[in-house]
Amino acid sequence: MNMNESTMTGLKIIVERAVRPVRVSNSRRRKIREELLSHVVGVFEEERARLDDDQAALEQTALRFGNPAEVTNQLQQSVPAGDSIVRIWEGQPGEATLWVLLRLACVASACAPVAACVVVLAAGRMAALPREAMYHATYAFLGLPLYLFSLAFLTDCFEKAFHDRAKDSRLRVALSACIGLLFMLLFVAGAVWPGWLTGLDPLGLVPYASILAAFSVVTALSLALGCAERRRYHQEWGRLPIEIAS
Hints:
By secondary structure, this protein is mainly alpha-helical. The protein has nine helices and no strands.
């Protein structure tokens, strides 16, 4: 049987009253919503077939669902301890995408010196690395933070462009995207620079630098599409009025 939009909204409100207060990561919250929504839709179909009235079936579905506060407590107790780490990585609902990306970039950048120490120790125990290889490795570790932060800003620019269609906003986003891309290209130019010091032909490295730049833009665009979809999903559920009228 077909279900109109008003009825589906009512079912989502039943679910959201119990799910929204739960302290849980965004990905797990989405999974819980989908599972509970599938459950209440099934219950609603049973009640509608029995009562032959959408509003009465919706009210009966809410009664069968139970007290939202009690369901919230049960859901909170079922959240695994490791989910708190996922919450830090994913951020909070409604948090700006840029802050999530910058947080991830900071963590990845902090790991770079650790990786550099591992490489140096490994190189000390094995044969000494060629000087040109050391140049490239040093630049990769030092340039990683700049690259990650540039990728974060570029992704945020694309995501804002998808979210805000206003003409003035598009102009600002385009300018920001150009600035972010400039930083990206500076990183790519640096990838060619060590070749000048070691006597390599810089033009021979241009294809690899171009591939890196293109890959970075495509990666930022893909991340932005995912961020925009998550933003729309959060706004759709966040607008639901879950307050129970007294």
